[in-house]
Amino acid sequence: MIFTAGVITISDRASAGIYEDKSGKILVDLLKDFGFEVKKYEIIADDFDQIKEKLVEYSNENISLILTSGGTGFAKRDITPEASLAVFDKKCSGVVEAIRNESAKITPMAYLSRAEAGIRKNSLIINFSGSPKACQENFEIIKNFLIHGLKTLAGIDKH
Q1: CA-CA distance, 64 to 25, in Å (whole number)?
Q2: 1: which residues sit within 8 A by CB, 6+ positions away?
Q3: Is the pTM of the predicted complex or chain greater than 0.85?
Q4: Which of 17, 36, 95, 147 could form a disulfide with 31, with the two C-beta atoms 3.0–4.6 Å apart?
């Protein structure tokens, strides 16, 4: 089965064209290389309502996996986790625990990530850092269990 994916880069500066979004493009490439059909890719500002709106839109379109990039740090405008939590039906804390724990082997700064993961309808939503390097490393971490989780969510695997 081919799963669908969507990527949302959340960055005031990238959405304003001040700099190029590299992290979102890396996630799109990684997803395609892993066999996903990437249905959507957008860059939006660090705006609570807009983030929520996009997550709801993507999940209403039954996109299997929604990855966000950016807005997971300590800055005042970093609100991606809060907007994500506002739309989740269920949290998937183990996903971000795995990312933080494995990433911390590379840099202790991984523990400063406030990223969240959860399910809305039939979509798995995972927050990634805005760092292109971290996006690549973190995607490698979740590859080991991602497909099983998506198959279970889709009702293909029962356990």
Answers
A1: 18
A2: 151, 154, 156
A3: yes
A4: 36
Token output for 87: 């739309």
Alpha carbon distance 146, 65 (integer Å) = 9
> What's the fold here for domain 4-153?
Molybdenum Cofactor Biosythetic Enzyme; Chain A (3.40.980)
- Is the CB of residue 68 less than 8 Å from the CB of residue 8? yes
Span 45-80, pLDDT tens digits: 999 999 999 999 999 999 999 999 999 999 999 999
State both tokens at 75. Answer: 């800055």
Query: How many CB atoms are located within 10 Å of the residue 36 CB?
Result: 23
Helix (H, G, I), strand (E, B) or coil at 70: coil
Residues 30, 1: Cα–Cα separation, whole Å = 17
- Cα 110 from Cα 94, distance rounded (Å): 15
